[in-house]
Design brief:
By secondary structure, the chain is mostly helical. It folds into two domains: 13-196, MFS general substrate transporter like domains (Growth Hormone, Chain: A, Up-down Bundle), CATH 1.20.1250.20; 213-414, MFS general substrate transporter like domains (Growth Hormone, Chain: A, Up-down Bundle), CATH 1.20.1250.20. The protein has helices at residues 16-36, 40-47, 52-84, 86-106, 110-123, 127-137, 143-171, 175-194, 209-212, 214-221, 225-241, 243-256, 260-311, 321-327, 329-340, 348-378, 389-408.
Length: 414
C-alpha cells in the first residue's frame, strides 16, 4: 500500500463551518432515524390488524433489509465520493433520505413501507462519506478528537429523536415521518449553501467497480496487515455493541422488572454519558496517551461495562457500568483515526464505505446471536439460568478485540 498523502495546508486544522455542517448532517440524520424508532413498529402493527407477534417478525425483516442495503451501498457511495467529491454524494443522499421519509409517511401498504426502509438503508450509508469528509479536512494527529466530537451528534440524535418521535406519534402515527423528512430537507438546504467540497479534483481517484462492491471494498481492509487487524478488532467490537439494542430492553424488564419509563431514562443516561466522553474526553485522552493506548483503554472499559451489566442483579447498581460503557467510545474514535492514516487521501471514501460494510455485517449477525443466547439462558428448559449471558458474551468479544488490537499494534508507538 502506498503511503498516505500528506495533509494539505487546508487540512492543517479542521474548517469550522465544514465540520459544523458534518456535525449537523449526522445529528439531523440520527434525529430523523431516532424519531421513527418508537413509532415504526406501531405503524407496521396497523397494517397487520394489530397482531403484535406478526408485526415483530415483519419489523425484524425490515431491520435486516436496512442493514443489507447499508452493506451493499456504503462502499458504492464511498467510491462515488472518491471519484466525484464528497459534497454531491452527501447532498444527494440527504435529499434522497428526505424523499424516503415522505414515501413512508404516505405509505398505504407494507410493500411501500418496505420500499421506504430499503431507500433509507441506501441513503443513510452517506454517513461513511461524512467521515471521509472529516478525514479530508483534518490533519491525521487531530482526527481522533474530531471523530469524537462528531460522535456527540450520534448520542444527541438517539437521545432526543426517540423522545420526540414518541410525543409526535401520540398526535398522529405518521407525523414523525413528516418531521424526519423536514429534518432531512433542512439538512440538504443547509449543505447546499454552507458545505464546500473537501476533495480537490487532483486528489480524486477513478471509479472502479472492484472497489465499489462490498467484496472489493473489504479487500482494501486486508491490503495492509495493520489495517486488517484493526478492521477485525473493530468487527468484534461492533458485534458486541449490537447486544445493547438487541436485548437490553428485554433484559432490563426480565431481570430488574423495569417499566418503559425506567428503561427510557437509563438509555437517556447512556446517551448523555456518551456525549460527555465523545465531546470532552477523547481529545485529551488521545493527546495524553496516543491513539494506540486510547484504543486499548476504550476496549478494556467496554468489557468491564458489559461485565457489570451481566453480573449485577440490582438494576440501579448496574448503572455503574454506564460510565465504563461510555469510555468505550474512545476506542471507536482511535480506531478510525489510526485506519485513516493507513490509506491514501484518494482512498478515504473507500475506507469509510468498507468500514460501514463491516458494521453492517455485525448488525446482520448480532440480533440473532444475542437474542438466541438470551432466550436459551432464560428458558424454563435450560439447566443453568444466566440472564446476563448476552452481556458476558459481549464482554468476551471485546476482550477478543483487545487481544487482536494488542497483537496488531505490538511495537507501534503513539
Amino acid at each position: 500500500m502506498s503511503e498516505q498523502t500528506p495533509a494539505s495546508p487546508a487540512a492543517a486544522a479542521p474548517r469550522g463551518a465544514a465540520v459544523a455542517f458534518i456535525f449537523v448532517t449526522i445529528l439531523l440524520d440520527t434525529l430523523a432515524l431516532g424519531v421513527i424508532i418508537p413509532i415504526l413498529p406501531k405503524l407496521i402493527e396497523s397494517f397487520v390488524d394489530n397482531d403484535t407477534a406478526n408485526a415483530a417478525r415483519i419489523y425484524g425483516l425490515f431491520g435486516t433489509a436496512w442493514a443489507v442495503m447499508q452493506f451493499f451501498f456504503s462502499p458504492v457511495l464511498g467510491s462515488l465520493s472518491d471519484r466525484f467529491g464528497r459534497r454531491p454524494v452527501v447532498l444527494l443522499s440527504n435529499f434522497g433520505l428526505a424523499l424516503d421519509y415522505v414515501v413512508m409517511a404516505l405509505a398505504s401498504s407494507l410493500t411501500w413501507l418496505f420500499i421506504g426502509r430499503l431507500i433509507s438503508g441506501i441513503t443513510s450509508a452517506s454517513i461513511s462519506t461524512a467521515f471521509a469528509y472529516i478525514a479530508d479536512i483534518t490533519a491525521p494527529e487531530k482526527r481522533a478528537a474530531v471523530f469524537g466530537k462528531i460522535g456527540v451528534a450520534f448520542g444527541a440524535g438517539f437521545i432526543f429523536g426517540p423522545a420526540l418521535g414518541g410525543v409526535l406519534g401520540d398526535i398522529d402515527v405518521r407525523l414523525p415521518f413528516w418531521v424526519a423528512a423536514a429534518f432531512s430537507f433542512a439538512n440538504t438546504l443547509y449543505g447546499l449553501f454552507i458545505l464546500p467540497e473537501s476533495l480537490p479534483k487532483e486528489r480524486r481517484s477513478p471509479w472502479h467497480w472492484k472497489s465499489a462492491n462490498p467484496v472489493g471494498a473489504l479487500r482494501l481492509l486486508t491490503s495492509d496487515r495493520v489495517l486488517a487487524g484493526l478492521s477485525l478488532a473493530n468487527f468484534f467490537a461492533q458485534l458486541a455493541h449490537v447486544s445493547l439494542p438487541s436485548v437490553f430492553v428485554l433484559y432490563a424488564s426480565y431481570r430488574y422488572g423495569w417499566d418503559a419509563k425506567t428503561v427510557g431514562l437509563t438509555l437517556a443516561l447512556v446517551g448523555i454519558c456518551q456525549m460527555v466522553v465523545q465531546g470532552g474526553a477523547i481529545g485529551p485522552i488521545v493527546r495524553r496517551f496516543g491513539e494506540r493506548n486510547a484504543l486499548f483503554f476504550g476496549l478494556a472499559c467496554g468489557a468491564v461495562g458489559f461485565f457489570i451489566f451481566a453480573v449485577t442483579s440490582n438494576g440501579y447498581l448496574s448503572w455503574a457500568g454506564i460510565p465504563m460503557m461510555a469510555l468505550w467510545g474512545v476506542a471507536g474514535a482511535a480506531t478510525q483515526a489510526l485506519a485513516t492514516q493507513l490509506v491514501t487521501a484518494e482512498q478515504q471514501g473507500q475506507l469509510q464505505g468498507a468500514t460501514t460494510s463491516v458494521v453492517s455485517i455485525s448488525q446482520l449477525l448480532g440480533p440473532f446471536l444475542f437474542t438466541l443466547t438470551f432466550a436459551h439462558f432464560i428458558s424454563p428448559q435450560t439447566a443453568f439460568k444466566l440472564p446476563g449471558a448476552p452481556f458476558l458474551l459481549a464482554a468476551a468479544l471485546l476482550v477478543l478485540a483487545l487481544a487482536i488490537a494488542l497483537r496488531t499494534l505490538a511495537g507501534k508507538r503513539g
